[in-house]
Protein backbone atom coordinates (compact mmCIF):
# COMPACT_ATOMS: atom_id res chain seq x y z
CA UNK A 1 0.00 0.00 0.00
CA UNK A 2 0.94 3.66 0.10
CA UNK A 3 2.16 3.62 3.68
CA UNK A 4 5.33 1.60 3.12
CA UNK A 5 5.97 2.62 -0.46
CA UNK A 6 9.29 4.15 0.56
CA UNK A 7 10.62 0.69 1.38
CA UNK A 8 8.65 -1.42 -1.01
CA UNK A 9 7.12 -0.70 -4.38
CA UNK A 10 3.66 -1.77 -5.45
CA UNK A 11 3.14 -5.39 -6.19
CA UNK A 12 3.17 -6.30 -9.84
CA UNK A 13 1.05 -8.73 -11.84
CA UNK A 14 2.73 -12.09 -12.48
CA UNK A 15 3.83 -11.23 -16.01
CA UNK A 16 5.79 -8.14 -14.92
CA UNK A 17 9.09 -7.83 -13.13
CA UNK A 18 9.05 -6.30 -9.68
CA UNK A 19 11.00 -3.02 -9.48
CA UNK A 20 12.91 -2.85 -6.20
CA UNK A 21 13.13 0.38 -4.21
CA UNK A 22 16.43 2.12 -3.46
CA UNK A 23 16.63 0.34 -0.10
CA UNK A 24 15.96 -3.03 -1.65
CA UNK A 25 18.53 -2.40 -4.40
CA UNK A 26 21.14 -1.48 -1.81
CA UNK A 27 20.34 -4.55 0.27
CA UNK A 28 20.52 -6.83 -2.77
CA UNK A 29 23.96 -5.50 -3.70
CA UNK A 30 25.37 -5.51 -0.19
CA UNK A 31 24.32 -9.06 0.72
CA UNK A 32 26.30 -10.64 -2.08
CA UNK A 33 29.14 -8.09 -2.29
CA UNK A 34 29.90 -8.91 1.33
CA UNK A 35 30.68 -12.53 0.44
CA UNK A 36 33.13 -11.92 -2.40
CA UNK A 37 36.23 -11.56 -0.22
CA UNK A 38 35.35 -14.46 2.12
CA UNK A 39 34.82 -16.74 -0.87
CA UNK A 40 38.20 -15.80 -2.36
CA UNK A 41 39.89 -16.45 1.00
CA UNK A 42 37.91 -19.63 1.54
CA UNK A 43 38.73 -20.88 -1.95
CA UNK A 44 42.42 -20.12 -1.46
CA UNK A 45 42.32 -22.00 1.81
CA UNK A 46 41.07 -25.15 0.05
CA UNK A 47 43.73 -24.71 -2.61
CA UNK A 48 46.50 -24.53 0.00
CA UNK A 49 45.06 -27.54 1.82
CA UNK A 50 45.12 -29.64 -1.37
CA UNK A 51 47.41 -32.64 -1.29
CA UNK A 52 46.97 -34.00 -4.78
CA UNK A 53 45.87 -32.99 -8.28
CA UNK A 54 42.22 -33.96 -7.80
CA UNK A 55 41.97 -31.88 -4.65
CA UNK A 56 43.61 -28.93 -6.39
CA UNK A 57 41.34 -29.15 -9.44
CA UNK A 58 38.26 -29.53 -7.26
CA UNK A 59 39.33 -26.55 -5.14
CA UNK A 60 39.67 -24.45 -8.29
CA UNK A 61 36.30 -25.50 -9.72
CA UNK A 62 34.47 -25.00 -6.45
CA UNK A 63 36.14 -21.66 -5.71
CA UNK A 64 35.45 -20.30 -9.19
CA UNK A 65 31.80 -21.31 -8.83
CA UNK A 66 31.56 -19.72 -5.38
CA UNK A 67 33.32 -16.47 -6.29
CA UNK A 68 31.58 -16.33 -9.68
CA UNK A 69 28.16 -16.51 -8.04
CA UNK A 70 28.76 -13.59 -5.68
CA UNK A 71 30.69 -11.45 -8.19
CA UNK A 72 28.12 -11.84 -10.99
CA UNK A 73 25.21 -11.31 -8.62
CA UNK A 74 26.81 -8.15 -7.20
CA UNK A 75 27.57 -6.75 -10.66
CA UNK A 76 24.06 -7.53 -11.90
CA UNK A 77 22.34 -5.95 -8.92
CA UNK A 78 24.61 -2.88 -9.06
CA UNK A 79 23.88 -2.33 -12.77
CA UNK A 80 20.20 -3.00 -12.19
CA UNK A 81 20.24 -0.34 -9.46
CA UNK A 82 22.47 2.40 -10.88
CA UNK A 83 22.51 1.79 -14.63
CA UNK A 84 19.05 0.39 -15.34
CA UNK A 85 18.75 2.70 -18.39
CA UNK A 86 21.31 0.41 -20.08
CA UNK A 87 18.54 -2.05 -20.85
CA UNK A 88 20.60 -4.43 -22.96
CA UNK A 89 23.48 -4.60 -20.47
CA UNK A 90 21.08 -5.12 -17.59
CA UNK A 91 19.22 -7.80 -19.47
CA UNK A 92 22.39 -9.69 -20.38
CA UNK A 93 23.64 -9.54 -16.81
CA UNK A 94 20.28 -10.78 -15.60
CA UNK A 95 20.68 -13.84 -17.82
CA UNK A 96 24.29 -14.37 -16.71
CA UNK A 97 23.11 -14.08 -13.10
CA UNK A 98 20.65 -16.89 -13.75
CA UNK A 99 23.16 -19.02 -15.63
CA UNK A 100 25.86 -18.74 -13.02
CA UNK A 101 23.51 -20.40 -10.53
CA UNK A 102 23.57 -23.61 -12.59
CA UNK A 103 27.35 -23.65 -12.67
CA UNK A 104 27.45 -22.81 -9.00
CA UNK A 105 25.31 -25.89 -8.28
CA UNK A 106 27.59 -28.09 -10.40
CA UNK A 107 30.69 -26.57 -8.79
CA UNK A 108 29.29 -27.18 -5.30
CA UNK A 109 28.97 -30.89 -6.05
CA UNK A 110 32.38 -31.18 -7.75
CA UNK A 111 34.46 -31.70 -4.58
CA UNK A 112 32.11 -34.46 -3.35
CA UNK A 113 31.90 -36.19 -6.72
CA UNK A 114 35.65 -35.91 -7.35
CA UNK A 115 37.07 -36.67 -3.92
CA UNK A 116 34.69 -39.20 -2.36
CA UNK A 117 34.58 -42.88 -3.17
CA UNK A 118 31.72 -43.48 -5.61
CA UNK A 119 30.03 -46.53 -7.02
CA UNK A 120 30.44 -47.29 -10.77
CA UNK A 121 27.01 -45.81 -11.60
CA UNK A 122 27.39 -42.81 -9.36
CA UNK A 123 30.69 -41.77 -10.89
CA UNK A 124 28.83 -40.77 -14.07
CA UNK A 125 27.35 -37.94 -12.07
CA UNK A 126 30.77 -36.24 -12.24
CA UNK A 127 30.12 -35.17 -15.80
CA UNK A 128 26.30 -35.47 -15.83
CA UNK A 129 26.04 -32.57 -13.41
CA UNK A 130 27.88 -30.33 -15.92
CA UNK A 131 25.62 -31.49 -18.76
CA UNK A 132 22.60 -30.52 -16.67
CA UNK A 133 24.15 -27.13 -15.88
CA UNK A 134 24.75 -26.55 -19.61
CA UNK A 135 21.18 -27.52 -20.47
CA UNK A 136 19.97 -25.08 -17.85
CA UNK A 137 22.12 -22.36 -19.38
CA UNK A 138 20.64 -22.97 -22.82
CA UNK A 139 17.22 -22.90 -21.19
CA UNK A 140 17.92 -19.38 -19.87
CA UNK A 141 18.60 -18.17 -23.43
CA UNK A 142 15.59 -20.02 -24.79
CA UNK A 143 13.18 -18.25 -22.45
CA UNK A 144 14.74 -14.83 -22.39
CA UNK A 145 14.44 -12.26 -25.16
CA UNK A 146 16.15 -8.90 -25.46
CA UNK A 147 13.04 -6.68 -25.59
CA UNK A 148 11.24 -5.24 -22.61
CA UNK A 149 11.65 -7.66 -19.72
CA UNK A 150 8.01 -7.40 -18.71
CA UNK A 151 6.67 -9.20 -21.74
CA UNK A 152 9.48 -11.75 -21.91
CA UNK A 153 9.46 -13.12 -18.40
CA UNK A 154 6.07 -14.78 -18.02
CA UNK A 155 5.10 -16.24 -14.71
CA UNK A 156 5.47 -19.75 -16.00
CA UNK A 157 9.06 -18.99 -16.96
CA UNK A 158 9.86 -18.45 -13.31
CA UNK A 159 8.19 -21.72 -12.42
CA UNK A 160 10.07 -23.63 -15.15
CA UNK A 161 13.29 -21.98 -14.06
CA UNK A 162 12.66 -22.93 -10.45
CA UNK A 163 11.95 -26.53 -11.44
CA UNK A 164 15.20 -26.64 -13.42
CA UNK A 165 17.15 -25.43 -10.41
CA UNK A 166 15.46 -28.02 -8.22
CA UNK A 167 16.27 -30.87 -10.64
CA UNK A 168 19.89 -29.81 -11.13
CA UNK A 169 20.21 -29.18 -7.40
CA UNK A 170 18.68 -32.39 -6.10
CA UNK A 171 19.48 -35.08 -8.66
CA UNK A 172 23.19 -35.28 -7.76
CA UNK A 173 22.24 -35.26 -4.08
CA UNK A 174 20.74 -38.75 -4.53
CA UNK A 175 24.20 -39.95 -5.53
CA UNK A 176 26.13 -38.00 -2.94
CA UNK A 177 23.81 -39.15 -0.14
CA UNK A 178 24.27 -42.80 -1.15
CA UNK A 179 28.04 -42.67 -0.76
CA UNK A 180 29.50 -45.26 1.61
CA UNK A 181 31.18 -42.49 3.60
CA UNK A 182 28.39 -40.43 5.15
CA UNK A 183 30.54 -37.72 6.73
CA UNK A 184 29.13 -34.33 5.85
CA UNK A 185 25.67 -35.63 4.93
CA UNK A 186 23.96 -33.54 7.58
CA UNK A 187 25.70 -30.36 6.52
CA UNK A 188 24.84 -31.01 2.88
CA UNK A 189 21.17 -31.48 3.74
CA UNK A 190 21.13 -28.42 6.00
CA UNK A 191 22.58 -26.31 3.17
CA UNK A 192 19.96 -27.72 0.83
CA UNK A 193 17.20 -26.74 3.25
CA UNK A 194 18.56 -23.15 3.32
CA UNK A 195 18.41 -23.00 -0.49
CA UNK A 196 14.86 -24.38 -0.51
CA UNK A 197 13.65 -21.86 2.04
CA UNK A 198 15.31 -19.12 0.01
CA UNK A 199 13.54 -20.24 -3.16
CA UNK A 200 10.19 -19.34 -1.61
CA UNK A 201 11.36 -15.72 -1.49
CA UNK A 202 13.03 -15.95 -4.90
CA UNK A 203 9.77 -17.06 -6.46
CA UNK A 204 7.62 -14.41 -4.75
CA UNK A 205 9.96 -11.45 -5.00
CA UNK A 206 7.18 -8.86 -5.14
CA UNK A 207 5.11 -10.35 -2.33
CA UNK A 208 7.31 -9.54 0.64
CA UNK A 209 9.36 -6.60 1.74
CA UNK A 210 13.04 -7.25 0.89
CA UNK A 211 12.14 -10.67 -0.51
CA UNK A 212 15.08 -10.83 -2.89
CA UNK A 213 17.40 -9.69 -0.12
CA UNK A 214 16.10 -12.58 2.03
CA UNK A 215 16.73 -14.95 -0.89
CA UNK A 216 20.33 -13.69 -1.01
CA UNK A 217 20.73 -14.30 2.72
CA UNK A 218 19.54 -17.88 2.37
CA UNK A 219 21.95 -18.42 -0.54
CA UNK A 220 24.79 -17.17 1.67
CA UNK A 221 23.72 -19.49 4.53
CA UNK A 222 23.48 -22.46 2.16
CA UNK A 223 26.82 -21.75 0.53
CA UNK A 224 28.45 -21.19 3.92
CA UNK A 225 27.15 -24.50 5.27
CA UNK A 226 28.35 -26.36 2.17
CA UNK A 227 31.74 -24.66 2.30
CA UNK A 228 32.12 -25.74 5.90
CA UNK A 229 31.33 -29.36 4.99
CA UNK A 230 33.76 -29.38 2.05
CA UNK A 231 36.54 -27.83 4.10
CA UNK A 232 35.90 -30.01 7.15
CA UNK A 233 35.35 -33.40 5.54
CA UNK A 234 37.17 -33.24 2.22
CA UNK A 235 40.13 -30.92 2.79
CA UNK A 236 40.99 -30.60 6.47
CA UNK A 237 43.69 -33.18 7.14
CA UNK A 238 42.69 -35.71 9.71
CA UNK A 239 46.23 -36.41 10.90
CA UNK A 240 48.87 -34.03 12.17
CA UNK A 241 51.32 -35.54 9.68
CA UNK A 242 49.48 -33.99 6.76
CA UNK A 243 48.81 -30.81 8.66
CA UNK A 244 52.52 -30.28 9.25
CA UNK A 245 53.19 -31.10 5.62
CA UNK A 246 50.86 -28.32 4.54
CA UNK A 247 52.52 -25.90 6.92
CA UNK A 248 55.90 -26.92 5.57
CA UNK A 249 54.77 -26.36 1.97
CA UNK A 250 53.16 -22.95 2.59
CA UNK A 251 54.66 -21.73 5.83
CA UNK A 252 53.72 -18.05 5.67
CA UNK A 253 50.37 -17.98 3.95
CA UNK A 254 48.98 -21.02 5.61
CA UNK A 255 49.84 -19.90 9.11
CA UNK A 256 46.89 -17.52 9.39
CA UNK A 257 44.45 -20.09 8.03
CA UNK A 258 45.91 -22.67 10.38
CA UNK A 259 45.30 -20.42 13.36
CA UNK A 260 41.76 -19.70 12.18
CA UNK A 261 41.09 -23.37 11.74
CA UNK A 262 42.48 -24.13 15.18
CA UNK A 263 40.20 -21.59 16.77
CA UNK A 264 37.18 -23.02 14.97
CA UNK A 265 38.07 -26.65 15.41
CA UNK A 266 38.98 -26.22 19.05
CA UNK A 267 40.74 -28.96 20.91
CA UNK A 268 41.53 -31.42 18.11
CA UNK A 269 44.16 -29.45 16.31
CA UNK A 270 45.04 -27.31 19.28
CA UNK A 271 46.11 -30.32 21.30
CA UNK A 272 48.05 -31.67 18.37
CA UNK A 273 49.81 -28.42 17.62
CA UNK A 274 50.58 -27.69 21.25
CA UNK A 275 52.12 -31.06 21.75
CA UNK A 276 54.37 -30.99 18.71
CA UNK A 277 54.26 -27.90 16.54
CA UNK A 278 54.38 -25.32 19.34
CA UNK A 279 56.57 -27.44 21.57
CA UNK A 280 57.31 -25.84 24.96
CA UNK A 281 60.91 -24.77 25.44
CA UNK A 282 61.32 -26.64 28.70
CA UNK A 283 58.88 -29.54 28.52
CA UNK A 284 60.19 -31.20 31.67
CA UNK A 285 59.63 -28.28 34.03
CA UNK A 286 56.16 -27.48 35.31
CA UNK A 287 57.20 -23.96 36.32
CA UNK A 288 58.12 -23.01 32.78
CA UNK A 289 61.58 -22.00 31.66
CA UNK A 290 63.69 -21.27 34.66
CA UNK A 291 67.07 -19.66 34.43
CA UNK A 292 69.79 -22.08 35.49
CA UNK A 293 70.68 -21.56 39.16
CA UNK A 294 74.30 -20.75 38.42
CA UNK A 295 73.20 -17.46 36.80
CA UNK A 296 71.24 -16.23 39.82
ZN1 LIG B 1 19.87 -11.62 -6.82
Question: What can you tell me about this protein's structure?
Answer:
This protein has helices spanning 22-33, 36-49, 53-82, 87-115, 125-143, 149-152, 155-176, 185-203, 211-235, 240-249, 251-265, 267-277. It is mainly α and 296 residues long. It has 2 domains: 22-236; 241-280. The longest helix has 30 residues, at 53-82. The radius of gyration is 24 Å and the shape is globular. Zinc ion binds next to α3 and α9.
What key phrases describe this protein's structure?
single chain, 296 residues, mainly alpha, globular
Judged by helices, strands and strand pairing, the structural class is: mainly alpha
Beta-strand content estimate = under 5%
Query: Stretches where pLDDT falls below 50 for ≥5 residues?
Result: 1-5, 146-151, 240-249, 267-296
Helix content: over 70%
Mean pLDDT: 76
How do the helices and strands follow one another from N- to C-terminus?
Answer: HHHHHHHHHHHH
How would the global form be characterised?
globular
Number of strands: 0
Question: Cα distance, first to last residue?
Answer: 83 Å
Question: What is the domain tally?
Answer: 2
Radius of gyration: 24 Å
Can you count the helices? 12
Major β-sheet, in short? none
Are any ligands bound, and if so which?
zinc ion
Subcellular location: Membrane
Family: Belongs to the ADIPOR family.
Keywords: Membrane, Transmembrane, Transmembrane helix
InterPro entries: AdipoR/HlyIII-related
Amino acid sequence: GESNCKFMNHRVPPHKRYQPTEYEHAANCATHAFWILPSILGGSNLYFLSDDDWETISAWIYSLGLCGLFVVSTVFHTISWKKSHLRMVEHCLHMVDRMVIYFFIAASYAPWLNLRELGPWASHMRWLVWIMASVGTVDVFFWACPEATAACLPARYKLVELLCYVVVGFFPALVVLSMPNTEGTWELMTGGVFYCLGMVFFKNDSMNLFAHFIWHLFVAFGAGTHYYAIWRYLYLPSTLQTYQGVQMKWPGIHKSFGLLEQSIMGSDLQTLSQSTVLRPVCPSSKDGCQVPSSNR
